[in-house]
């Protein structure tokens, strides 16, 4: 064998080993698709994922205050999911199976977690059952990791309440700029996803409470049409406006979660029945297009920005181009 051939083979080999190394699971900024693949390839367990998030929460949450309560059973649920994956290896489990989800503190969970809308008045109260959206998450094997903090009573208590503040936990911070307004009222759902304390969260919106904190913390929120997601077990403000939606790090993730939580719920009867007619057969995921923005024209409303902000914004806009 010539020296050249040996050199060639070793180059191929080193290239190969580099690639396999690069494929080990990376926890930071991970997505549902990454996690799902890593589960399938036995590179990751739900326990490892939950342990990672619990460590991040222990490290960051005392400062960021994004999570009001951590589920004491999260690791037990993770072990159960790992067990199910082992014994059902040949079956196709949901893409959310074994994935931790943080739910806003106004969404009922019938477990050890309190459901309080951030209010001391509701600590220790007992909900009759899981909220409709939580039932749907549990049905596909998702793990409820904890409760996200929020503006107390979703800002309906007073008009001058600071965004992301409540009497139980205090003030949540924007993980990118601590002095910035983290927005609300689904504050913790957005900040915790941005800070890698979880990949998937649920928020609720009556008027801007999903979209605004998602925007302020650079994550992706979807505000579904009222009735598309069940409000059963969600502390209400307006039955004509309240809706539950996903807050994630990517559009794809938010759509995957939307697919799981939409649909009929007899505990939110007329609204979910009416809206469920419009759910596309096969779900929303089929409409995701990697080049969906090609040839689209986007407008920038410069009036909303200061002169410094618009420079930064323009840079990012050029990236989109
Ligand atoms: C997976 O296996 C468990 C037993 O470990 C069983 O109870 C469960 O129904 C199975 N799930 C699916 C989706 O097959
Ligand atoms: C729920 O509230 C009770 C106080 O009534 C508290 O003892 C308990 O630790 C809370 N649950 C969690 C998971 O923090």
TrEMBL record:
<protein>
    <submittedName>
        <fullName>Amidase family protein</fullName>
    </submittedName>
</protein>
<dbReference type="InterPro" id="IPR023631">
    <property type="entry name" value="Amidase_dom"/>
</dbReference>
<feature type="signal peptide">
    <location>
        <begin position="1"/>
        <end position="22"/>
    </location>
</feature>
<keyword id="KW-0732">Signal</keyword>
<dbReference type="InterPro" id="IPR036928">
    <property type="entry name" value="AS_sf"/>
</dbReference>
<dbReference type="Pfam" id="PF01425">
    <property type="entry name" value="Amidase"/>
</dbReference>
<feature type="domain" description="Amidase">
    <location>
        <begin position="49"/>
        <end position="306"/>
    </location>
</feature>
């Amino acid at each position: 064998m010539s020296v050249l051939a040996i050199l060639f083979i070793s180059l191929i080999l080193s290239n190969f080993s580099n690639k396999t190394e690069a494929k080990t699971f990376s926890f930071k900024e991970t997505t549902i698709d990454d996690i799902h693949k890593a589960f399938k390839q036995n590179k990751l367990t739900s326990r490892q994922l939950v342990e990672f998030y619990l460590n991040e929460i222990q490290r960051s949450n005392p400062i960021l205050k994004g999570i009001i309560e951590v589920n004491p059973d999260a690791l037990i649920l993770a072990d159960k999911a790992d067990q199910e994956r082992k014994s059902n290896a040949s079956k196709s489990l949901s893409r959310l199976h074994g994935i931790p989800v943080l739910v806003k503190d106004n969404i009922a969970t019938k477990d050890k977690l309190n459901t309080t809308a951030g209010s001391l008045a509701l600590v220790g109260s007992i909900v009759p059952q899981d909220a409709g959206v939580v039932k749907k998450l549990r049905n596909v094997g998702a793990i409820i990791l904890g409760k996200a903090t929020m503006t107390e009573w979703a800002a309906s208590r007073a008009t001058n309440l600071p965004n992301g503040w409540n009497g139980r936990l205090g003030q949540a911070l924007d993980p990118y700029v601590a002095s910035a307004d983290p927005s609300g009222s689904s504050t913790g759902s957005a900040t915790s996803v941005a800070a890698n304390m979880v990949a998937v969260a649920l928020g609720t919106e009556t008027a801007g409470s999903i979209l605004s904190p998602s925007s302020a913390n650079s994550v992706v929120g979807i505000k579904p049409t009222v009735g598309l997601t069940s409000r059963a077990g969600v502390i209400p403000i307006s039955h004509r406006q309240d809706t539950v939606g996903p807050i994630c790090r990517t559009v794809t993730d938010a759509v995957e979660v939307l697919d799981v939580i939409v649909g009929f719920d007899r505990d939110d009867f007329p609204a979910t029945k009416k809206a469920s007619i419009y759910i596309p057969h096969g779900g929303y995921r089929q409409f995701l297009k990697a080049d969906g923005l090609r040839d689209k024209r986007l407008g920038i409303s410069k009036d909303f920005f200061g002169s410094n902000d618009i420079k930064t914004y323009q840079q990012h806009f050029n990236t989109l181009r």
